[in-house]
Amino acid sequence: MLLAHHGGKSGAQRGTSKREDMLDVVIELRRPADFDARQGCKFEVHFSKARHLAGEEAQSLSMAMTAGLNGRATWTWSTLEASTFERVADLAREGLAPGEIAAELALHKSSVSRHLRAAREAGVLEGRS
Question: Which of 7, 50, 54, 66 has the fewest CB atoms within 10 Å, measured from its CB?
Answer without folding.
Answer: 54
